[in-house]
Amino acid sequence: MPLYETVMQEKPPIVLDIGNAYTKLGFAAEAYPRKIIPTEVVLTTTGETKRLFDYVATEQLYDQIVDFLQTIFFKHLLVSPKERKFVVVENIFGQSVIRETLARALFIHFDVSSVLFVPAHLIALSTLAVPTGLVVDIGYSETTVMPVFSGVQIMSAFKDQSYGSSAVHDEIKRQLLATGVKESLLTPSVLEDIKIRTCFVTSFERAQAKPDKETTPVPNVDYAICDDDAVISIAGSVRETVYELMFEQNNERDSLPHLILRAILDCSMDVRCALVESIFVIGGGAMVMGLMARLKAELQHLLANDSYYAERFHGDLQFKFYNTIGKQNFTAWLGGALCGATDLIQTRSLSKETYLRNEHVPDWSNLCDNRHGG
Amino acid sequence: MPMENNIKILPKSVVCEESTLRGDITFSAGCVVHPSATIIADAGPIIIGENCIVEEYATIAHRLADGASWDASNILSIGSHNVFEVGCNVEASRIGDRNVFESKCFVGRGVTVSGGCVIGAGIQMRTVQVLPENTIVYGQQALQREAIEKQGSQTLQIDFLRKVLPNYHHLRKPNYDPKKARSVV
Amino acid sequence: MSFMQPSPVKYACSCGILNPINKLFFCRHCPKLRCGFCVCHEIESHFCSNCLENIPSSEARHKKNCCANCFDCPCCQHTLSARATTVPVVRKADESKDGGESGSDAAPSPKPSAMPTTKKMYYLSCLSCRWTTRDVGIPDQGVATGTWPDNECLYQVRFNTLMEYYQSVVLQEKQEKQEFMRRKAPKQHKFPSLTDRTGLTVSLIRRQIGWNDKSIPKTKPINITPAEASAEVEPLSEDIFTQPINLRNVTTVAQRHSQPADQPTAVNNLYPQRRSLWIKRSLRCRHCEHNLIKPEYHPTSIKYRIQLFASYHVPEVVMVRCEQPLQPGQTNAIFLKFTNPTMYDMTISILDAPPADAQVNMDAFMQGCRIKEEAITSSPLLKATGVTLTRQNSTREVTREVRDLANATIVPLDNEFVLSQRDDSKEFDEDVQAPIEEPKFIVWRKGNKVLMRLQFTPAAELQTGDEVTLGFYMQYTYVNTVSNTPDKKEPTTHALYSRLFIQAGEIAQGTAN
């Protein structure tokens, strides 16, 4: 295959997936990211750590992105970004200011040769080699649902809610504060550690059980917080219930199962059945124990017992799920790595020359970029 | 509190004279106490097991609780083969065998150290807690992990110190021989 | 005085960012101040920070930027070190019962009669958290740089299939497009070629003379089995409701992310990680593409081949003290120590506005060139150097306006003063310099150092506790030893200026009026 051999012989493209909490970075055609690092910058002036997307002015964001990318290139990837090709996995509904600033930093400050922006949901699906799927991305700040049919994203059926890992952190904090733990102890890193090491999604049966009914409580955990040298007890109920905010039953009907079902209903009738049988859950938030089992039980339960959905879904439907190859938190990155290994990096990228002509990243939502009949 | 120090040193122990010892302290056979180590038995006797090493500027203290007074039955027992590294400060309520207290660590009064534990350098432990067997506390966040086996004893080091220390320091003489004591009684 | 502490004196870099002088570089060819933000960083060499071995970049790429010999602890990310133990080798005939003995405290087999042969076995151990390869059941190795298990990726085969599949899909698409374009585009020849008229096509001729068809066979996408969705999902184990969890067996986020391929949740799946390489960087001026910093190649050396730190070229200003406590609206004076780091005398003047001749040259001013350069000897030279300096290169220089932080007005000095050259031998001279006529703002002078007094007035509206910042322009003469033009060999003198901001301190408590 002489055509793509030439692609591989030159320097492999860099694949970046800059998430709200963690950034996945590595090279195209590799099966897993080189590093997964917190999306944080260390300010050179004060030495304090700061989240990348906390900013006041665009210029500040630009400086932070430059600092962050500098760390990525010279501390983690150890390659010079100059004249490199890039694949950037992006949230399709992400803020355009971030996208524009990132492009400006890459093209103007780092002098890269081309950048290929790929939409996260679509590219994640490519790791399965299937054209159709309902991609659920449970991220840090939000959970998004995007149906994809035959390789086309159904934008009108996109759904998102603000429960992601950060909402879970807040819930842990709220519940622990209620048990009398000092607030100063519960730093974000402690909350994350508590979440990842002790918490889980409980089973459907236990969640449905009435509060007054006695269930065997989940064992408590003694958790040592080291900064202030304290030991706090994390009640079993905390471990079990913090993820309930994704499944909360309320009048808004915006819990995760509802979100999925509504996204399916927003698609045309012909694709619904295919979507029901191809749910694909990705994102770091999806790695918690018990999530998939619970999600499936909830979906089947709603389908059978909720009159709204029973009216609209017909036939004997069985929800089916795809397993990711690799871990969920870098599935979208993996798609980008696959994409960067193909010739698409030559043909579809935004090249430096094109960018410098009018310093603008083409955007699907921008009418100016969609005018021509191509 | 007893009016005078009552230091019992069993044979084969090497206790340097420049060390600060206060209260009722018993060193079992084979202990090595470096110069300027400090052992304070305010609240009750301290009994140190065999082959322990107490390095320079290490402090082992059995301090009085508020309002308490000397109590001969309140014994701080320290097991055998423990290493107290340079500058550590240990006030633990009980210490088992084969523990390592690394440099500059602090172990507070409420802590019970079982056996085979390692308290990493610079770690501060104040909260009341029990360290299970083979716990290793390490790193800036004082994370805990469990070792697969107990730390190896430092026999070579003890033998070396036993040879070297007497060449350069005055030693306190072993003053208590269990065999003799038994024959006397 | 302010070692390891943020310096109160900040210089405005030519890109507009404020930095203390020790973070600035000075491009002799431009000649301008540069900072880490406005220079081009390049990778000079890869090395391992543990074994200090230099690794060529091609090898580094091949090894995925990891050292071949050094490992990091998966538990605490510290470096692992190899420990040796002696293990008795089992003699088949006579000694078989001692064979199982091993371990760190393994004393050599005590039976002298059997003449036990021992061999050294190695395992990796972390000196920080005492993790060992034995913790996860990795057998000891016969050589120190043993064949420790590498991260293997469970789905590598599937990934490769996927990659081949997509590559062939994209390739096919591309070929179809090319085919389409060729058919769509009419022949552009003005005259029909011979082959067209005779109907002899290239492929026909090739076939006639027995060559292969030149056209590449159409690629078909290779077959791939798409992933199967299943209704079966991993159930939550019932144990979690009843069994207490042991936090020591659950990995932390950092531990998981240090093993990105498998991200184990249990500590017994942690494996030693190959240590990431480090790099040496060289810095290059974006404007003239000259190196500002070039380290020596060898990892053990900390010297530079090229080092254009600003503190070797630009007079250093150190704030000594203020004369009186700072009060809003009250005239005060600040003592500043100037040091000349160069081998040439400098003439310095302190201004409250950019030098007049710099303002005339608005063009240069707008480009953000905050330093005006002027050849004293001849003005055509300036033109010549100007031409060479504006050589365009690929990377654009982005400048921004200097943020004016000053909230005090200074009284500019009425005349300039000379800062003598640096002379290391003079440091030890006993004889006192003959007193010379000094301007009265100069408090003290020794060698290449001058202490001077600068009057200023903090703004009247400042409140107690507000930071007072002075801003001024320091014009200095700089003798450039590198020549930008080949014909001119003698050093040229430039009059440069830097904009400085000094945090004088906070408005003191007390009654101002």
UniProtKB/TrEMBL annotation, chain A:
<protein>
    <submittedName>
        <fullName>GH12098</fullName>
    </submittedName>
</protein>
<dbReference type="InterPro" id="IPR004000">
    <property type="entry name" value="Actin"/>
</dbReference>
<dbReference type="InterPro" id="IPR043129">
    <property type="entry name" value="ATPase_NBD"/>
</dbReference>
<dbReference type="Pfam" id="PF00022">
    <property type="entry name" value="Actin"/>
</dbReference>
<comment type="similarity">
    <text>Belongs to the actin family.</text>
</comment>
Automatic annotation (TrEMBL), chain B:
<protein>
    <recommendedName>
        <fullName>Dynactin subunit 6</fullName>
    </recommendedName>
</protein>
<keyword id="KW-0963">Cytoplasm</keyword>
<dbReference type="GO" id="GO:0070840">
    <property type="term" value="F:dynein complex binding"/>
</dbReference>
<dbReference type="GO" id="GO:0007052">
    <property type="term" value="P:mitotic spindle organization"/>
</dbReference>
<comment type="similarity">
    <text>Belongs to the dynactin subunits 5/6 family. Dynactin subunit 6 subfamily.</text>
</comment>
<dbReference type="InterPro" id="IPR027777">
    <property type="entry name" value="DCTN6"/>
</dbReference>
<dbReference type="GO" id="GO:0005869">
    <property type="term" value="C:dynactin complex"/>
</dbReference>
<dbReference type="InterPro" id="IPR011004">
    <property type="entry name" value="Trimer_LpxA-like_sf"/>
</dbReference>
<keyword id="KW-0206">Cytoskeleton</keyword>
<comment type="function">
    <text>Part of the dynactin complex that activates the molecular motor dynein for ultra-processive transport along microtubules.</text>
</comment>
TrEMBL record, chain C:
<feature type="compositionally biased region" description="Basic and acidic residues">
    <location>
        <begin position="91"/>
        <end position="100"/>
    </location>
</feature>
<dbReference type="GO" id="GO:0005869">
    <property type="term" value="C:dynactin complex"/>
</dbReference>
<keyword id="KW-0175">Coiled coil</keyword>
<dbReference type="GO" id="GO:0005938">
    <property type="term" value="C:cell cortex"/>
</dbReference>
<keyword id="KW-0597">Phosphoprotein</keyword>
<keyword id="KW-0206">Cytoskeleton</keyword>
<dbReference type="Pfam" id="PF05502">
    <property type="entry name" value="Dynactin_p62"/>
</dbReference>
<keyword id="KW-0832">Ubl conjugation</keyword>
<dbReference type="GO" id="GO:0030016">
    <property type="term" value="C:myofibril"/>
</dbReference>
<keyword id="KW-0007">Acetylation</keyword>
<comment type="subunit">
    <text>Subunit of dynactin, a multiprotein complex part of a tripartite complex with dynein and a adapter, such as BICDL1, BICD2 or HOOK3. The dynactin complex is built around ACTR1A/ACTB filament and consists of an actin-related filament composed of a shoulder domain, a pointed end and a barbed end. Its length is defined by its flexible shoulder domain. The soulder is composed of 2 DCTN1 subunits, 4 DCTN2 and 2 DCTN3. The 4 DCNT2 (via N-terminus) bind the ACTR1A filament and act as molecular rulers to determine the length. The pointed end is important for binding dynein-dynactin cargo adapters.</text>
</comment>
<keyword id="KW-1017">Isopeptide bond</keyword>
<keyword id="KW-0963">Cytoplasm</keyword>
<feature type="region of interest" description="Disordered">
    <location>
        <begin position="90"/>
        <end position="115"/>
    </location>
</feature>
<comment type="similarity">
    <text>Belongs to the dynactin subunit 4 family.</text>
</comment>
